[in-house]
Prior knowledge:
Blueprint: H1 4-21, E1 26-31, E2 37-53, E3 56-63, E4 69-70, E5 85-90, E6 94-102, E7 106-117, E8 132-137, E9 142-144, E10 148-151, E11 155-159, E12 162-173, E13 184-186, E14 207-208, E15 218-224, E16 227-243, E17 249-255, E18 262-267, E19 271-277, E20 281-291, E21 296-306, E22 316-320, E23 325-329, E24 333-336, E25 340-345, E26 348-359, E27 370-372, H2 374-410
Parallel strand pairs: 10-13, 14-17, 24-27
Antiparallel strand pairs: 1-2, 2-3, 2-12, 4-5, 5-6, 6-7, 7-8, 7-9, 10-12, 11-12, 15-16, 16-17, 16-26, 18-19, 19-20, 20-21, 21-22, 21-23, 24-26, 25-26
Amino acid sequence: MASPSGARRRLLLLLLLACLMHGASSVFVVKNDNGTACIMADFSAAFLMTYDTKSGSKNVTFDLPNKAEVLNNSTCGKENTSDPSLMIAFGKGHTLTLNFSRDATRYSVKLLSFVYNLGDTDFFPNASSKDIKTVKSVTDIKADIDKKYRCISSNPIHVNNVIITFRDTTIQAYLSNNNFSKEETRCKQDVTSPTTAPPGPKPTTPSPSPVPQSPSVYKYNVSGTNGTCLLANMGLQLNITYEKKDGKTVTRVFNINPNKTTISGSCNSHLVTLELHSEDVTLLAFRFGMNVSSSRFFLQGIQLNATLPDTVGPTFEAANDSLRALQASIGNSYKCNAEEKVQVTKAFSVNIFKVWVQAFKFEGDKFGSVEECQLDENNMLIPIAVGGALAGLVLIVLIAYLIGRKRSHAGYQTI
């Protein structure tokens, strides 16, 4: 009979092996008709998403399985007619697709698509729907031609109610030597700023662009199978700081024009998303979350993918899913007449004008009771304080006048 200490050692060894196997990366290769590799990808990926069950919303987390394989639908593309793509299949009908594109100097994963089957009980037990869902997003995966893309850091990509996190990633498309290049382009997550700047000209401050007039206020509406899940009256203004092709850093400020914007979104029991698409803005997404314990909703995340013709890279991308803005109780609405600035990243912020928003719970598709923002309350306190101060000053002057008048009468004697 084995000793208890020996059994514990075996258990620890099994746990160690499980940790080493968890999230192990896989190498995926796409070849052309001649058997030459055109795409190679070595990474592990984790999926975090929310789906509906009969007993309510449920979160699920799983890794890309080791048994995932490259589908025959993957292609090396044809010059001037189609772009290369890597399509990875796993489970019962799930596919992860990376679509590539290139210009004269760089290539990128221009679009990531994830198709998942809610009927797969191994990944989605007790799902109330058996539908097949598709989510898509642009990515920041890009590298120089003839160099591999390398990213050791975790790189989360947020797509509606799904977060796909790539880890220890090596990807290269448009291969020329049938293997990964020895040279690499590191991802921005891996690159750190030097502690001391090299000698040279002093960096210039970003040149601001002319500030446009206040944006038009528009009523945005997102509805699902159970009716309205988001109402938002607001004007939107974007502030983007980026490097131009000539090396200068500029700050561009522009308004979202609702008349030239396509509006979409999605409803979930714990996540509501508003998505805006226009000519320059590939995606501007606002994600509203819920704190169940306090029964409050809030602006949880903002994501921007924009095309800037004079920038160094083909697109500008920024995202933050740890915001806590525009908060109100479930069933109530949040309202603020003052301009609010939401800092998404160091290089990107959103100015929100005359916002009136409510998420998740509605009665009659109308805004609920209003919760005023702190800025409006402070603005109301200023005239109250000024009025109070003026009233106090008038009272002091009146009292001083009465006291002075009484003393002047006391100086006369009756004859």
